[in-house]
Design goal:
alpha/beta; Rossmann fold; 2 domains; 4-stranded parallel beta sheet; globular; MaiA/AMDase
Length: 255
Amino acid sequence: MRRRVGLIVPSSNTTMETEIPDLLRRHEAEHGTGFTFHSSRARLHNVDAESLARMVDDSARCAAEVGDAEVDVLAYACLVAVMAQGVGAHVEIEDRLRGALADGASARAPMVSSAGALVRTLDALGLRKVAVVAPYLPDLTKLVVGYIEHAGVTVVDSVSLSVSDNCAVGRLDPADLPGHVSRLDLGDGVDGIVLSACVQMPSLPAVQQVQDGTGLPVITAATATTREILLALGLPAEIPGAGAALGTPVGAGAR
């Protein structure tokens, strides 16, 4: 049976509809599952507080549209838009989007968000001190750091790439990520790395490389979201070579 995966994405996003299907195709090859993908887009050009708030306001429309496709799970694939609404905002927003599905064909579909997926994955993996790479301007990175810390995880260090145009974020080269990680302070008990604290910054080709190179569990917005999609569907959240969020423990990827 092919599962229908619904995605709500920023209109300028070019990454989540690439990385999540890539990961789930790997899952299909490993486990024999099958997926189709169905998206609705909310307008977003620049990553600033006003634009992010407008996008969140538009999310219920997107949920209702995707719900018409009778999806089996719905993922709100924008991390910073949710986090910018205040600490813990993913709980209220996930509930609101479930409500938008309540009267439609997808009324029973589970709802996940990238913001909620990130903090829940950190908790599930027992990661309590992390370092973070983000494409945002420093003020937005500080907001994301505060959101993660409110969830009980200490952010020991972070790198901001200071890119405000969302399409430009999608053109960042994941081959540069190991170099950005080299700028992080990975001492003081750091036990994990958030390699991409953004659904738009490409990172998938570097996830396992950075995990193997640092000897630390690595997760991203995309791998955490994919993990929760799989768990919501009752499927094993295990994809070889995709880092700790998807079941590859430290050391296993280099074998």
